[in-house]
Amino acid sequence: MIKSRKFYGYQILINLILAVTAIIIIVPLILLFISSVSSEASLIVNGYSFFPSEFSLEGYRYIWLNRGTVFRAYGMTILVTAVGTVCNVILSSMMAYALSDRKLPGRSIFNFVIFFTMLFSGGLVPSYIMWTSTFHIKNTVWALLVPNLLLSPMNVILIRTYMMNSIPESLYEAAEIDGGGHLIRYLRVALPLGKPILVTMGLFSGLAYWNDWTNGLYYLTDPKLYSIQVLLNKMIQDIQAIQANAVTASSGAAMRVPQISIRMAIAFVALLPILVIYPFLQKYFAEGIALGAVKG
Asked: 3-state class of 38 per DSSP?
């Protein structure tokens, strides 16, 4: 009876902690949306509020007036996110499968190299010179796909740990007895049974690709290749430039261009697709993290 009370006490405590965490996450999103449909004047005078004094869609109107450019950037982002996520999961899972084999020659060396890249890198300037002078990815779609995102050491370690702890060695041996080599073992055993962790790592990779704007900032000058994050960052810079020029020229028309509400609208538009997709992948996310994080 005492254990039962302790159990329920722990459950109540955990539920309270999760409820508070959920509120901390959800409240800023609600405030973001409300701010995006508030007038510029009310935001300047009253600040951010859950009960705006004046309703306005000026921020979304600004985005709609630039819809051709926005839709093209959305298309580029969807393409890069889809292709990059698939490539990331394939490369990460292939490397993780190899490292999960305890008989792999030099396995400890490869593990060390992967872990080392999580802690140290060559730096921004050498990376820029390498990607632009050696691989010539500047102003190409590869600039959004390859640097920093195509293969993640953390993803490799989590997938490797999952495969070592959650996939019985006897299944690999059975496939080997049936004449299957490593390719068959990878395709018929590792991939189907590794679905939870692969979906989870795919979600991580997709979020990284969707939210990435630094690669576009460093390697792109062609507006036709801008992703949605790069484009929205550029739009914010343009608004700031208009405001600065308005102050210099004392132009009343330019001064009326909304800035805060557009920032909020831009942020909400960029965030909306992730909010729609995430609930469908949540069950795989929870299972994959719980199993992939177990020490191997």
From this structure: strand
